[in-house]
Amino acid sequence: MVKFSSLALFSLLPAALAAPGQLFERLGAPSELDKRAGTFFSNWHEGSGNFQCNNGGGGSYTTNWSGQGGFVCGKGYSPGGRRTVTYKGTYNPKGPGYLALYGWTRSPLIEYYVIDSYDVLAPGEPWTKKGNFTFEEGSYDLYTSTRVNKPSIEGTRTFQQYWSVRTEKRVGGQITTGKHFDAWSSVGLNLGYHDYMILATEGFTNGAQASSGNSNITVD
Question: 4-219 sits in which CATH class?
Answer without folding.
Answer: mainly beta
